[in-house]
UniProtKB/TrEMBL annotation:
Cellular component terms per the entry's GO annotation: membrane
Membrane-topology descriptor: Multi-pass membrane protein
The EamA domain, residue ranges: 23-158, 170-302
Subcellular location(s) per record: Membrane
Family to which this protein belongs: Belongs to the EamA transporter family.
Domain of life: Bacteria
Keywords: Membrane, Transmembrane, Transmembrane helix
Name of this chain's protein: EamA family transporter
Transmembrane segments: 18-41, 53-72, 84-106, 118-136, 143-163, 169-188, 200-219, 231-250, 262-282, 288-307
InterPro entries found in the cross-reference section: AA-Vitamin_Transporters, EamA_dom, EmrE-like
Amino acid sequence: MFQQSDTALKPSQNDSSLLAFSSLLLGVFILSFAAIFTRIAENELSPSATVFNRYYIATVVLVPWQIIQLRINNSSEPNQVINLQDWAIFVLSSILGTCAIFLWASSLTQTSVANSNLLHNVTPIFAVLGGWLFLGQSFDYKFLLGMLLAIIGIFIISFGDFHSEVNSLYGDSLALLSAVFYALNYLVREKLRSKFSASTILLWTCLLSGCFTFLITLTTETQLFPNSWQTWLAVICLAVLCQIIGQGLLIHNLKQFSSAFVTLLMLTEPLLTALFAFIIFAEKLSPLNWVAFIVVLIGIYIAKLSISSAKVVE
């Protein structure tokens, strides 16, 4: 699991790595708005209906885009054949992603937001363990130190929000389990990314996840679709901005960065949320918050310097 050598990347690789890192940051920035759009949609829809609309609208947008891509690439490269094993991996990714979202949503009804956020944000730990156990990945001490610093920073941010009363163990367990499913899903996506484009992965996982959430919503809820234009706008933004563009950028860069580093970078989401609240709602940030921000950013910077964060292409 540990790798002590730290080989320098070539200049051309450094340039592409910087571009990929910038697009990763853009993807995380876009995904930080997901909670806002979800909150708006849930004023009218249930969580399952909100997730269903997110998936099916994304599928509707991705289908013509995938057709155009296939026609463009037809003349230059052969079509990617999806065999039975690939279909099994697509189904697995869809199940893991759907479980992660519903466990996360359920934990918020059973425990405090602070506990749920904190436990859900330990995803990089499970991504590192999963990459080591299942994908044979190795991580040097620089990467592990950066991950540890970033997670400590998230603990500091969440510390001020904890209440003195004892929270529900059941809700905490759901939040922790959602982090496990989320990490496993990115490991599976990393496996898919070695063969398929990001748009192909998004299309089939959104389609399959949409089918799963449709069955769940149909059996538990009475309303599937929004009635007001505000809710329609919220779920469309969830689908196009967050699911297609945000998740698409993260999946696209799994070709160059490990799933462990991608999930680690997503620890900046709580920072962005806090900064948005500071700018938009004038919410005060304590000196402890600013210290936590610096610790998280230093941790991510150290992890980025590690060779373990990137996949070196010969």
